[in-house]
Amino acid sequence: MTTVEAHRPTSGRAARTRLWWAGLLTLVAAAGLPRLNDYISPSENGGRLDREELIFLIVIAVVTVLLFGVLARWAVQAPPDSGRPARVGLVCSVLGLVGILAFYLSAPIILGGLGATLGYEARKRRALAGHGRMAVAALVIGGVAALIGIVVWLVG
Prior knowledge:
78% of the residues lie in helices and 0% in strands. It is an all-alpha fold.
């Protein structure tokens, strides 16, 4: 198998399936970890879901679905020789790191997860599109941002 064959981009359907699975995993982490933190740490409501937290969870779900369903899909549907997934993934990953400052919004988990997912998709296209370093940067930075967001929710 040649290098180009080994790194041939997968079908659009496979990429969309990966996006939805990654989006679901990101949504579970972004919405579930704050709830887990509520049960672990002593709080004024004893783990019960109040109106403010319910609104927070709805906003998290809507933002995650929109980012993965619109932005990520737009990035992945670019022509195979396009570097769009790498560029969009890197921007989302960096915003995920900046989002650590707003960890209470689960921003690093959502943006980091999106950036890492797009970095992964861009790595699969690197034989045609190039941008291999940018794809790896998006993957690593996004993963670090999401991991820091997870740690903040579990520890903080």
